[in-house]
Amino acid sequence: MIDTIRTTIAIDPLTRIEGHLKIEATIENKKVIDAKSEGTLYRGFEQILVGRNPLDAIQITQRFCGVCPTPHAIASAQALENAFGIMPPTNGRVIRNIMQGGNYIQSHLLHFYHLASLDYFRGPDVPPFIPRYESDYRVPQTVHEALTNHYIQAYQIRLKAHELCAIWAGKMPHVASIVPGGVSINPRLDSITTSLWRLKELTDFIDNVYIPDVITVAEVYRDYFSIGTGNKKLLSFGLFDLDAEPDVVKRKRFIPMGRMSNGKIETVDPRKITEDVKSSWYDSPSHLQPGNGDTKPNPKKSGAYSWLKAPRYNGEVYEVGPLARMAMAYESKSNPKAAQLVEDTLKKLKLGPEALYSVMGRHLCRALECKLVADEISGMIMQVKLDEPVCTDHEIPDSAQGMGLWCAARGALGHWIEIKNGKIARYQAVVPTTWNASPKDDKGQPGPIEQAMIGTIVEDTENPFALARIVRSFDPCIACAVHLIEPGKSVKKFRMV
Q1: Residue 29, CB-side half-sphere exposure with 13 Å CA sphere
Q2: 379, 81 in Cβ contact below 8 A?
Q3: For position 123, what pLDDT does the model report?
Q4: ∠ Cα 398 400 401 (to 5°)
Q5: How many helices (H) and strands (E) would you count in the chain?
Q6: What is the set of domains in the chain, with CATH numbers?
Q7: How far apart are CA 250 and CA 268, in angstroms?
Q8: Across the strands, what pairs with 430?
Q9: What residue spans of 170-294 are helical by DSSP H?
C-alpha cells in the first residue's frame, strides 16, 4: 500500500506578471488536485467613479493599468456612446483601431520577452536576470545568448510601439485623445508617414525575431503543449471595429465576437454574463449582471480567498485572451489570415490544433496574433482621411445606461455605466484577468487558471516552476498592492522572481 503524500504550497507573490498574484496548490502524490488563484488587491475604482461626470470615466478607468490603458479607454468610450446614442465617424473608428493595434504589439512583446521568457532561458548573472528562480533550462547556450540580446532589444522595439500609439493618442501610457464619439486629434500627413515608418520596424522584429524565438522555445519545450490545458471553453468580444453598427453584438469586427463551447462556435449574449462572489471578499449578491452589479468589499468574509469576482457566461467558466481569439478564428475560419497563420505554424511544428490549448499554445497564439495585428495596421493607417471629421457631437443625457465590449490584449473586456441626474450612478468593469484568474464560483467551479493548474505534475514541491509557467502563460494583469494573509494557516511559501 502506497501512503498518500499531500502538501499545500503557496507562491506569493507570483512575480513577472502585471502586479502580484498569489497561487496556492494542493498536491497529492506529486499531482495538483486543487488550486486557488488569489487576487490580493482591492482598489475600489467602482466607488471612485460614482458621482462623477460621465466624461471622467475614460481617463479614470485607464488607471486600472499602465500596460493596457488603451482598451479601457475604448471600452469606456463605447459604454458612453451606447448611453448617449452615438457612434464615431470613420476617422474616429479607424484611429482608435490604430491606437489599439500599437498597444497590442507592445503588450505582447512585453509579455514574452520581459515577463515569460525568463522561465525558459537563463540570462547572465547580472540584474535584471538575477535574482532568479532556477528552472529546467533546456535551450542550447547559443540560444541563451540570442534570447538575452533579444530581451534587451525588445525594450527599444516596445518603445516604437508606444510611439506608434502616442502619435494618435497624444501620449502613452494613458491616452489623451479618446473621447465619446471618436477622438480629439486631427490627423496630419506626418502622422501617417511616421506611423508607417515605426510600423516597419515593428513588423521586421515580429517576423524575424519574436515569432522565430517563440517557435525555438516551443520546439525545445514540446511537453508544454500538453500542460496547462484548461477547460477549452473560449470567449472573445472581438477586435477592431469595421463598421458603425450601434449594436455591438451585430457589429463587424476584424477578429469577431464569439465563444466556443464543446468545440462549437456560438454567438455572445451579454445578458448571460454574470458574476459570482461566494469565494470573493464582497458582500454584494452573486449572479448579478455587470450592468446591475454592486461592489461591497468585506475583507473578513468567511470562505473567501480573492478580491477578484468570478465572471461566468450562462453559469459556465470561459478562458479569454489570444488563445481564445486565435483558436476560434482557426476553427471558424472567420478570419482567413489568422486561420492560415495558425495552420502553417502547427504544420511546421508537426502538431494538431489540440496543442493550442496549453502553456506553449498560449505563447504561440499571442505571437501569431501580434503578427496578424501588425500586418493589419498598415492598411488602417492608409484609411485615415485628412479632411474628414474625427468625432461625433454629443450631449450627456440626464439618465441612461451603456455598455462597451472590446478585447484588450489579455482578453475580453467589458465596461458598464449607469447615469442618473447627469452623473455616474453605477460603473462596473469586468477585465480579462477577472475571467482568467477568477476564484471558484458559487457552484464550486474553479476559474480558468485554477483549472489549468489542476492535474499538473510537480516533481519537486520546493521548486514548482511548472505552476509558474502555467500562470504566466495567461499573462495575468493585477496592479501592485498590499498582500493579505490568512493568520494561523501554515503553508509552504515561495517568493518567485
Answers
A1: 3
A2: no
A3: 87
A4: 155
A5: 13, 16
A6: 6-494 (1.10.645.10)
A7: 10
A8: 414
A9: 189-205, 211-220
Q: What is the Cα–Cα distance from 497 to 490, expressed in whole angstroms?
A: 22
Cβ count near 28 (within 10 Å):
12
The answer to whether 184 and 391 have CB atoms below 8 angstroms apart is yes
378-418, pLDDT tens digit by residue?
999 999 999 999 999 999 999 999 999 999 999 999 999 99
**Residues whose CB falls within 8 Å of the CB of residue 424, separated by 6 or more in sequence, listed in order:** 49, 50, 51, 52, 53, 54, 56, 57, 417, 418
Q: How far apart are the first and last CA of the chain?
A: 39
Task: Report the 10 Å Cβ neighbour count for 220.
Answer: 17
Closest CA to 473 of 9, 72, 135, 16: 16
Amino acid identity of residue 287, one-letter, is H
Which residues are CB-neighbours of 166 under 8 A, at least 6 positions away? 172
483: which 3 cell numbers? 498582500
Q: Collapsing DSSP states into helix, strand and coil, what is residue 19?
A: strand
Pairing of the two strands 264-266 and 258-261: antiparallel
How distant is the alpha carbon of residue 457 from its chain centre? 26
State the DSSP code for 236.
E
Amino acid at 462: E
Residue with cell 479607424: 94
Of the candidates 465, 445, 418, the one whose C-alpha atom is nearest the C-alpha of residue 46 is 418
Query: 51-75: buried (b, 16+ CB within 10 Å) or exposed (e) per residue?
Result: eeebeebbbbbbebbebbbbbbbbb
Residues of the chain with pLDDT under 70: 1-3, 478-497
Q: What are φ and ψ of residue 148, in 5° steps?
A: -60, -45
Q: For 117-188, where are the alpha helices, taking DSSP H only?
A: 141-169
Per the DSSP assignment, residues forming a β-bridge with 276 are: 310
Gap between the Cα atoms of 292 and 81, Å rounded:
18
19-28 vs 6-17, strand pairing mode: antiparallel
- Amino acid 218 reads A
DSSP state of 447: P
